[in-house]
Amino acid sequence: MGYKKAFKKAFPYTIPVLTGYLFIGIAFGVMYAEKGYSFWWAILMSLLVFAGSGQYLAVNFFVPGFSLIQVVLLTLMVNVRHIFYGISLLDKFNKMGKKRWYMIFGLTDETYSLLATTKTPEGVEEEKFLFAIALLDQFYWVFGSFLGGLAGTYIKFDSTGIDFAMTSLFVVLFIEQWMETKNRRPALVGIALSALGVCVFGADRFVFPTMICIIIVLLAGKKVFVKGGEEYAG
């Protein structure tokens, strides 16, 4: 009964993710099917991997020429930001018992955004509410992958540019969090270091070294970036 109420309360908060994941999940399914794989494999990957942008990247791993080392390094470059997510949610996850393992697995950018900013409604246990958010978000992605894989298999059309759907979602998430938060110092650090990274390392190689620099700077200056953030933004 507690879970039923938790899912009912969580659903309205996940509607923005539903609209986003449905379409980028469809885009992933289409891309996967175009490589010649059955849509069932797209569904299986979304169930067992569920890595968002990592899955978009993984589509290219199945073509000849990719080595295991390249796969590991590229995946690390794309998902290194999850270090931030995990650190900031340690306290919440530690209270969730065995469910914390699924929460760690299901931690995507969009889910993190909800877990970090949404207050648990009255009358609902926090751990069940957070679990419901994570599970609903994955369901949206899996369903989108199913639709996209099905469409890519049986409907022939020009899918040029469809992979830009994930980039668009990241931009929307950034703008949304920028507008909602008062402390914009961490975001400004990310913007500045990313711009510097592009200049130093080039557009094709800046992601990994830039993320490392961002981690070091934010961890080293945690008190500076957090304390007084509201006054800075105001």
UniProtKB/TrEMBL annotation:
The lineage of its organism: Bacteria, Bacillati, Bacillota, Clostridia, Lachnospirales. This is AzlC family ABC transporter permease. The chain crosses the membrane at residues 13-32, 39-62, 68-90, 129-151, 157-175, 187-220. InterPro entries: Brnchd-chn_aa_trnsp_permease (IPR011606). The keyword Transmembrane applies. It is a multi-pass membrane protein. It is found in: Cell membrane. Belongs to the AzlC family. Keywords: Cell membrane, Membrane, Transmembrane, Transmembrane helix, Transport. It comes from the Bacteria. Its main location: membrane.
